[in-house]
Amino acid sequence: MEYLLKQLQGPEAWRASWYSSERNHDNLTRLLVRASYRGATLTAAFIQQRGGSVTSLTASGHTALHIALDAGHMQTVECLVRHMGANLFLCDGLGRLPLLLCPQDKRDQLLEDALCQAYRVLDFRMGKIRSGLEKQNLAYVMVLMAVLYNEADFFSSEANLPCMKHGLFPDVHLSSERTTSLSTEADLSSVETFPSRKWKEVFLQMAIMLRQIEERQFLDDNWLKDLLSCLSQKRIERNDTVTAAEVNDDLDLDEELFFLLIEELKKKHHSLSSENHKKDPELEDLLNSTLHRALRLCCECDLLLLTHLLFTVAAVPVDEIIDPVSGSTALHIVASHGRIGLMDYLLSRNASPSVLDHAGRTPAHLAYMFGHSAVGDCLCEGFEESRSKAGNCPKDLLVAFKKYLKMYHLEKNIRVPMHELNDPLALTRAHLQQFKWKWRSNFQRAVKNLHVDFTSGEAQEVQTILTEEIKKILSDQARINPLWEGDLQVLGSSADNLRLYAPDEFDCNVVLKKISGFPGGGLKVKHTPFPREVAEMKGYSTCVCVTAVNESLKSYIDGPNIVRLFSNDFLKCLENFKFSDNRLSFVPPGTRKTQVGISVSFAWEGSEFPLLLIEVDIVPILKIPWPGSQQRPPMTPPDVDTLYISNTGDGEWRYSFAAIESRIFRALPGNRRLVFLACKLLIVTLKVVSWAPRDVKELFTYWNGRRFKIPAPAGFILKNTFLQEMEDVKDNAEWDTQKLYERMCSVFSRMCIRDYDVTSGTTRYFHGKVHAYFGGNTEKPSIGLAAPEILAFLESLKAS
What we know:
- By secondary structure, the chain is an alpha+beta fold.
- It has 4 domains: 2-86, Serine Threonine Protein Phosphatase 5, Tetratricopeptide repeat (Alpha Horseshoe), CATH 1.25.40; 105-280, no CATH class; 424-440 and 672-799, no CATH class; 457-656, Beta Polymerase, domain 2 (2-Layer Sandwich).
- It contains 33 helices and 17 strands.
- Strands 3, 4, 7, 8, 9, 10 and 11 form a 7-stranded mixed beta sheet that branches. Strands 1-2 form a two-stranded antiparallel sheet.
- It is globular.
- InterPro entries: Ankyrin_rpt (IPR002110), Ankyrin_rpt-contain_sf (IPR036770).
- It holds the Pfam family Ank.
């Protein structure tokens, strides 16, 4: 207790955990179970913080949740389920389902809580998506959850116990009507029966209704209201003036609509499930893709309830490949995200820890590859010597991950008082001070140590091999549709030789050869000015209008079709692609659609770089003549007479100046390159990579109702202000290393609004709007987030 009190009174009280000389998972789990037996909820939380698991079975076959239920400690039970990740659907060694051990009133309450939590996670994800089509795909998942929830029999021990491995029953597959399993709680003659397949008919009817909703309604987040109107055949008005008192408990309006949908589905279940419609292959494909998408989301977001529904109601095979690009099963993806509770649940349903992905990796490989040692240790037993195609055993990848982490200099400690942890400005200042402490304010030394040199060594090899493999994929894609034949342009920091930390991010454009704005290219491109009121609302004055001259191109050019069709065909080529070098492979999430193309996830397992988790953005672009009405800023190379345009997910077109920018930045002289890299270094100091451990990520976030990332200027903002700086400051002497701080201050001041206080004689800086250097009249300006804090930090360094 003295150890705990000392931690709680220290500078990092939020890290307080139970004292243990070593992080032994099994010992800590046994201790957590004992605390749950005594109803010592707070102690259990401290033990979990140290590494104990609320879902792992002890040697006696119990979980902490079962023990708390047996002891009648309902407050502990609620805390274990709501706040510590305990699973209501994970049986103990006797086959007892925790949900069935709860009192009836608690069952309903805990189930509703689980449904609310799953809805909120999916709704939050929906809010981050910008594409109407992707929002619609997520809406299918949310409707599927509502349908399965209605169909589930949560209170039948038969329907909720794990089934035997599907491999033991060759007749069982995704479309089977029934499946069987021995129940450990019933007679040996008793069998487990899945609910009927009526849920499938209900979902398909709902999918037909969702298809009828305009894409705009998904972009405006009004789809749920429209779906309810369609289902109930009466208009549902969404009253945004409803007061908090009129909303039931803590349910917001969208949650209330979701629960209304569930109630409406109950009422209409018979009529919806008895609808007779011809078998539609397109709808069947939609069902299968939605099931896979739902299970992937469960693995990524730790959705315990929806996972249980997918296995017990929808009968999804537990070892089904749900990422066809990397060949990953649910257990692979859960391992890559370090979801220990979901891992225990999948193993209880007989998920195989020996199944291999396309690169010959077990789930243990994936766990260690992403730094989740506790999950890796659970999955590694019996597979310690299993080697992937790259020649690595599971624990080799844990060593590689730790080296990768060191490359990024990510610290687990930060000098910030506890009361400032949720102050984004204080966190920003703390990270900048951490940089000062680490590098002693020596930008030249920091840049020299952290800069990636693509002109030699394994970094050059990574870039070369990756480029060649992408060219092969594009060649395969052109065979599917000759319209996709194009030239690959590698752009961004890897092409400019301006990358920091590791060679793990690449930006690629594909210049399509058979569609262009030149004569014979089939397109007509023109500048169209907005009316003044529209321009003021959007923040820019002109839009790019593209029309098809050739009728055959109309279906590609209309709306967001070109980016969708290109991405879909590119994805098809990835599913059976064979790498020529085993050091390179696909990893989860495999692919992700972006606003203007597709992002692909790779892993590199080499010698200089034992592990790299590489993200490559692929964007299809079209070449057009430089329009006479389009501005040519002074930094534009004089011989440039062409521009590129890209299609966005919301159906608009925008200019792409990446090739021109790359040409300018690739040719930067030494001193200017140093200034740019030093500025970039301060920006990336405020950012954290997606694969970083959770406790490290939390240092780059603050809590305000939910977690937000601390603000930082975007990379393109730095490029725009730096180009403006080079235009205005032409004297090479002003770029000398002796004036490094001065130039950096000047660059960041361009991201700010300056306010001079006459009374005090002081100057204050605020976030300012930054217009694009190229095509500023066709792009919305961006905000220089955190630029005032960076500027103040630089001025303090300059003064000292």
